[in-house]
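Re: beginner question about structure tokens

> Can someone show what the tokenized structure looks like for a real chain? I only ever see the sequence side.

Sure, here's an example I had lying around. Input first:
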Amino acid sequence: MAAVPTLSYSSARTYQECPLRWKFLYVDHLTEAPRGYFTFGRTIHSVLEELVRPLIVPASRRTESGESQRTLDHYASTRAPVGGVPSSSEEEVLEAYRRAWSSEGYTSREEEERYRALGAEILLGYYRLLRERPPTPVAVEQHLEATWDGIPIHGYIDRIDRTPNGGLEVLDYKTSREISSDEALSSDQLSLYQVLVEKNYPDPVEGLTLYHLRSLTPLRSPPRARDSLNTLYNRLGDVCDGIRSEAYEPTPGRQCRRCEFQSRCPEFRVVPAGDREYLAGLVDRFAHLRRQEAKLAGELERTAAELHRAAERAGVHRVPGNHAVAIRRREEEWRYPLEQVEGLAQMSKGGGLPPLDRPEEVRRFIRNPAIDPELRRRVADSGRRQVRWYWELEEPDTAG
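And the corresponding structure tokens:
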């Protein structure tokens, strides 16, 4: 069994989408070409961290034993927000943006310039909102680790804020074009971050937020209920089981369009030239046999039916041939209209009956002496017997 690495949201999602791609990235350590939108997101996150970090009032953290280690900063952070504002100017924000900018991954100069202009617009709008309504952050770009009932997890959380009630709000920045309130309510990423914060901070998580940077809109949701977290835990458990057992089969789907490992994937890999002729012959032979199989299946069914009719006319069950003996066998099954049976069964005074949704359960009901005989008879009368005939062959060495 392979060791299970510490799972992040992105690595778990990668395995769920395609275990083979997960192997390429996390076992073989193959790299993917940089993409402009990823570079853009990292750049914006970096500048936002620089903007917000001076406002942090750290909160107490749990110790390894799970106890809360309180500090003077904790008592300061749990008071009502003090309304601190960033001391930098708009020019300093744009200068930080220029320092952080990377051209990596953009497909053209025009694309890079569009993203650069969008980033300046986002950052200046965000900066102005910070000055108008400053948050009370306890952490930014915080890396947290935990063990969730045996599953090691980790994540980098964009921002954790103190709420007016003294609890915590988890925020994740999004630079994508559009997101919806439903995404905030169902985001597995926020769910995992909730677990990480709960296991690292003694204060309760009171809210989860996807922060849409293009519109400067926080999409808030309440913390996840236990049932929802349990569902996520079970999915992570499936990921762990797959990694431990080294189950790395490809899973073809829409995600394949953006995968850079198609040349290594058996779903897309081209047959080597040296094997092409041999494998082509096998494919042709397989296709021929499959067509023959379908033809023979139809012929076999017609012959069996004709043999059945002839044996029935002759009144025999054993029919000798020149090379084998065919033996006619009979199979029967009782079928009941289940809605009618359930209605009749409810009339039983015994009560506490199991659901009668299978024929064998109905047959047990009919034979139960504790149930009124007339009622049992009515249930029995609703049934219809279905008979199926089939043939078995005795080879000459066993036919006598």
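Each token stands for a local structural state, so reading them left to right follows the chain. The CA atoms of residues 325 and 394 lie 5 Å apart.
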